Amino acid sequence: MLPQIDPTPIHEVPAHTPLEAVLSSSRPAVIRGLVSGWPLVAASHSGDEQAVAYLKRYANDALPAIATVAPPQARFFYDDDFRGFNFRREPVALTAALNTLLRDRVRADAPTIYLGATTCETFLPGLCADNPLDLGGRDALASIWIGNRSRVPAHQDLPDNLACVAAGRRRFLLFPPEQLPNLYVGPLDVTPAGQPVSLVDPLAPDLERFPRYAEAMRHAQTAILESGDALFIPSMWWHHIEALEPFNVLVNYWWRSAPAYMDAPVNALMLAILCLRDLPPEQRAAWQETFRHYVFEFDAERVAGHIPEHARHVLSALDADKAANLRAHLLRNLQKQDAAQG
Q: Cross-referenced PANTHER family, in alphabetical order (predicted)?
């Protein structure tokens, strides 16, 4: 049995550190007390009843939210044979969900209930305006996560993420992107919540089955956040999250440091699997060099300096119109391939 390795603490920045310095970094950071002035945080410090009452003031029950329901204190995951999942999703009025969470706090056998990635302005209009945070002009999507004790498997998100604990406590476990080979990631296209997840349970890692996970733990970072604290998770960092109390609320902000016309890179990954992965090794190696030349080490002058500017097409700087044309070109090619296969 390989030994379990304790993660290191996530870097903490002083409360007076300018937020911009944190958000423009590629390093995770805990900011204690960043949102301690929020009315929602003040309500949570007075008790769960007060926090629920405060949230209900903003609840838009005309549009059902989606609750994820699982066994008590669940890790949202696959079922035993990987043919499905260990949870179900059901529509519910936000007020009803809040009432249920409040009622069941003392039940040890209460099912896990989690309202995840619920858009604030849709389901709680006005909440973020009354609990503001200056992100330096970033066009961020604010979401709220409400539930009881639960665990979200380690996964990564494309956007940068500022996670603010508004009620309860949460434990975060982070891994840098380069630890992908050591995390034993599950299926790419059938996932619990849209993102591929690590199959290793950090609370009970099976190091005989997943021996490389020990190396991942050598690079892991962790922190417990209290109500009012915040954590910056840079793009593509893996994160496992535990909600530790019978009632927990987190507000997070997602934003991309890329033009809006850019597609999700995972689409390129899926196309590469379709088009490249099963080529003979020497052809894959040739395409690896091609990708390095045109994508990963792209230099406009070196790659296209010998082509007249008006004739460079996709080798010139992209904009929204060129991106739309390229997307249409790809769709036509894929449809031709489907027709040829059919």
A: HYPOXIA-INDUCIBLE FACTOR 1 ALPHA INHIBITOR-RELATED, HYPOXIA-INDUCIBLE FACTOR 1-ALPHA INHIBITOR
Closest CA to 29 of 15, 12, 7: 12
- In this predicted model, what pLDDT tens digit does every residue of 101-132 receive, in sequence order? 999 999 989 999 999 999 999 999 999 999 99
By residue count, the chain amounts to 342
**pTM of the predicted structure, to 2 decimals:** 0.95
Provide the pLDDT confidence category of residue 1 given band limits of 50, 70 and 90: very low
- Mean pLDDT of all residues in 201-212: 96
Q: What is the mean pLDDT of the chain?
A: 96
| DSSP line for 142-183 | EEEEEESSEEEEEE--SSEEEEEEEES-EEEEEE-GGGGGGS
User: What letter represents residue 297's amino acid?
Assistant: E
Dihedral through CA 26, CA 32, CA 35, CA 40, nearest 10? 130
Taking the C-alpha atoms of residue 25 and residue 43, their distance in angstroms, rounded to an integer, is 32
Number of alpha helices (DSSP H) and beta strands (DSSP E) in the chain = 11, 14
Residues contacting 159, CB < 8 A, separation 6+: 141, 235, 254, 255, 256
Q: Domains in the chain, please, with CATH?
A: 8-255 (2.60.120.650), 265-341 (no CATH)
Backbone torsions φ then ψ of 244, nearest 5 degrees:
-100, -10
In 3D space, the residue among 42, 11, 2 whose CA is nearest the CA of residue 29 turns out to be 11
The count of C-alpha atoms lying within 13 angstroms of the C-alpha of 209, restricted to the half-sphere facing its C-beta, is: 7
